[in-house]
Amino acid sequence: MQAVILAGGKGTRLEPLTYTVPKPMVSVCGKPFLQHLLELLRSCGLTDVLVLACYLGEQIEDYFGSGSSFGISIRYSYEKTLLGTGGALKNAKDMLDETFLLFNGDTFLPINYDLLITRFEQSGRTAMVVAYGGPEPIARNNLKIQNGSVVAYNQDDVDGMTHLDAGVIAMKREVLKLIAPEYVCSLEEQVLPRLIEAGELVAFETQQRFYDMGSFEGLSTIQKVLI
Q1: 8-state DSSP, 46
Q2: Containing structural domain, residue 6
Q3: In angstroms, rounded to a whole number, what is the distance separating the alpha carbons of residues 31 and 50?
Q4: Backbone region of residue 84 per phi and psi (left: phi > 0; alpha: psi in -120 to 50; beta: other values)
Q5: Exposure of 43 by Cβ count < 10 A (0-12 exposed, 13-18 middle, 19+ buried)?
């Protein structure tokens, strides 16, 4: 299945590191974080990659190129201005497969992706979010899950939330129908709530913790994991 990576943000939580390099290219254990992520995907058989780039995105392409040196195939979709997570997807509409896995470009999640793909295909739904429900606290829960379905997504009011979005979503390309072209759009704020309302968002529950390198605290933690 195609792997699509959100890599366009400015990485403000990592300033001043991100003044001159895009967040996914911040060094972790001697190489860009994105390289760690791509190596994880390759080890899981996910070798068809689309990078959604914007801020300093040319540095990503200059480093990875076609991906052949890393044992994968990489294409790039560029936003002229930041369009948000949903807008970045819409901007890449002509490069997306009918189904794909969407990854945050600052998150490392070592799970069984074959099982995720199988569960998603069996669900028949439009999207399946990986939901962390393990014992180790990472951040405030933002998902409420009942009988395998996501019934609420809220990053502000966490009362009643049972799980945490782990930064990976399996999706069908038809989700683009919910996104207007050339407009700033957040998947989390504008698209996922509509999928929930329609009963089209289900969960892949896991107790495998994920690692977010998008802050200095997260960067310090992941340095110890990927050493």
Answers
A1: -
A2: 2-225
A3: 20
A4: left
A5: exposed
Nearest to 83 by CA among 24, 6, 20: 6
Kindly state the tokens that stand for 137.
């606290």
CATH of the domain at 178: 3.90.550.10
Residue-wise pLDDT for 184-198, tens only, equals 999 999 999 999 999
Residue range 9-41, pLDDT digits in tens: 999 999 999 999 999 999 999 999 999 999 999
Angstrom distance (rounded) from CA 217 to CA 139: 12
Do the Cβ atoms of 101 and 113 come closer than 8 Å?
yes
DSSP state letter for 20: T
For residue 203, which amino acid is it? A
Task: Say which residue the tokens 């979503």 belong to.
Answer: 169
CB 211 within 8 A of CB 108: yes
DSSP-derived letter for residue 23 is G
Distances 110 to 40, 91, 158, 166 between C-alpha atoms, Å: 7, 28, 26, 11
Looking at residue 208, its amino acid is Q
Domain count, the chain: 1
- Gap between the Cα atoms of 69 and 8, Å rounded: 23
